[in-house]
Design goal:
This is DUF4292 domain-containing protein. The chain has 239 residues and is an alpha+beta fold. It is built from five helices and 13 strands. The chain has a 13-stranded antiparallel sheet, with helices on one face.
């Protein structure tokens, strides 16, 4: 009887040991799903067009990024042109819809948040690994009826929970708590419509939700170009 009990316990324990995964193993599988670490590391710059829709209002824009360093976003909405730039530890913006028709320096906390956008959308966990950010596996849960792994990453701008699809290991979504000018807020993202571009499989749609926003923002990426030649002067703040 005792021998049978030991055998039963062993049989129950084996699947648990077999299927248990660490945060690092999940991230490695996510990187493989992207196309591999070498493919991710080979991208030094990226450029793409984006269209956004919020509460029936359409916006179009263009994003140019030097990985880990600089990013410029130009958005056209209601006949107005808005620009936001981060370059190293500095940033600036032109937002005529907020009454700013000339370039204004961004606050340090906003620069820190925007610096997190100097990477390719969808490669956030690969970035966390290369930058050695602390990562914790919270557990397995449901997101939109799908099984996902919840990984908590402590980044310079705040804590972000990333949800990795348990079957494809692609990034399914994220939840970030950020603080700007003394006010904290939560931003939720959902990633979808993955497409392969030059060996990298990346999301082409991102849905953003936050209590601070008037409604969900759906962002669609198109005309993605990897490693375009970038003129560094586009990041300089106009005088």
């Amino acid at each position: 009887m005792k021998k049978q009990l030991i055998t039963l316990v062993a049989l129950v324990a084996i699947p648990a040991l077999t299927f248990a995964q660490t945060a690092d193993e999940i991230i490695n599988k996510n990187i493989t799903a992207l196309g591999g670490a070498d493919k991710v590391a080979a991208v030094k710059s990226v450029q793409f067009e984006q269209s956004m829709s919020v509460m029936g209002m359409d916006m179009k824009g263009k994003v140019t990024t030097v990985i880990g360093q600089s990013s410029r976003t130009d958005i056209s909405v209601m006949g107005q042109q808005m620009t936001q730039v981060v370059d190293g530890d500095k940033g600036w913006a032109i937002n005529p819809m907020a009454g700013a028709t000339s370039a204004q320096a961004l606050p340090d906390d906003q620069v820190k948040i925007q610096k997190a956008n100097t990477y390719i959308i969808g490669t956030e966990l690969a970035t966390a690994k290369s930058n050695k950010y602390p990562v914790e596996l919270v557990g397995k849960e449901k997101l939109n009826e799908k099984d996902v792994f919840n990984l908590k990453v402590t980044r310079p701008e705040g804590v972000v929970n990333y949800y990795v699809d348990a079957s494809t290991y692609q990034l399914a979504g994220s939840k970030a708590t950020i603080s700007v000018q003394g006010q904290s807020g939560e931003i939720k993202s959902q990633y979808g419509n993955y497409k392969t571009i030059e060996g990298l499989t990346l999301p082409s749609t991102v849905e953003l939700n936050s209590p601070a926003m008037p409604g969900a923002i759906t962002m669609t990426l198109s005309n993605v170009v990897l490693n375009p030649k970038v003129d560094s002067t586009i990041f300089a703040m106009p005088k």
